[in-house]
Write a structure and sequence with these properties.
Bound molecules: aspartic acid
Strand content: 15-25%
Order of helices and strands: HHEEHEHHHEEEEHH
Number of helices: 8
Largest sheet: 5 strands, mixed
Distance between the termini: 25 Å
Strand order of the largest sheet: 3-2-1-5-4
Shape: globular
Structural class: alpha+beta
Helix content: 25-40%
Oligomer: single chain
Radius of gyration: 18 Å
Length: 225
């Protein structure tokens, strides 16, 4: 909000906002300290979209880089691409000077380990409620994280960013809704902006953010949309 009030670009402002959460080791759903995939490796997804230029960039399954939203912005600004994944995204980030670091905190490692220790023969990839499951772990499995931030500046321009460590204990390489433009984030400078958290697969199937903006175009309020 301070940046918006200073007249900074709304995209820089929303990225600065989500960086606070990406850098926070206590948040187990985003960036550094996010819960890892089933192999214990943190893989991050993020997208950004700039209203005035109607341009966007995204990265998915990015390892070892704390601020995927900043990398997503560079994908938008410095390439002709919209989405770069995995090793390619890591190479791209390194070539722009991003520092590689281990994103798995002790807290997240212990939660991951506990989940491994309590797997049962009733487990599917995402375990249903099971008596064997540790209650604390179960509450993690049922909760969702991710941060989306959208902003409107005083000149009427919009921007948005979404960033996440994705579904807890996902299959390595699984990509959620957050880096998919139209699903985890959508901005139309004339109409509005929307982004999401929650079960990404459901959102990918319904293109949630795009539909919210479309309903606003048709005259529905943000809440109804
Ligand atoms: N939407 C995120 C994903 O599916 C997860 C979440 O918001 O909890 O990757």
């Amino acid at each position: 909000m301070q940046m918006i009030k200073q007249g900074k670009d709304p995209l820089d402002s929303v990225i600065a906002e989500v960086n606070l959460v990406e850098n926070d080791p206590e948040d187990i759903t985003v960036g550094y300290g996010g819960l890892p995939n089933e192999k214990g490796v943190v893989e991050l997804d993020s997208s950004v979209m700039h209203g005035p230029t109607h341009n966007a960039g995204a990265v998915a399954s990015l390892r070892n880089i704390k601020n995927p939203s900043q990398v997503a912005k560079l994908v938008m600004e410095r390439t002709a691409h919209a989405l770069i994944v995995g090793e390619g995204a890591l190479d791209f980030a390194k070539s722009h000077g991003f520092k590689q670091e281990n994103l798995l905190t002790d807290r997240s490692r212990k939660i991951w380990l506990k989940r491994k220790e309590t797997l049962s023969d009733r487990d599917f990839w995402y375990p249903p409620k099971s008596e064997k499951m540790d209650p604390e772990l179960h509450s993690f499995m049922e909760s969702h994280g991710t941060i989306n931030c959208c902003a409107l500046d005083s000149t009427g321009d919009l921007a948005g960013a979404t960033t996440t460590s994705g579904f807890f204990f996902k299959i390595p390489g699984r990509v959620g809704d957050s880096p998919i433009i139209g699903a985890g984030l959508y901005v139309d400078n004339e109409i509005g902006a929307a982004g999401s958290t929650g079960f990404g697969e459901a959102n990918i199937l319904n293109w949630g953010s795009y539909m919210v903006v479309e309903y606003m175009r048709q005259g529905y309020s943000p809440e109804e949309s």
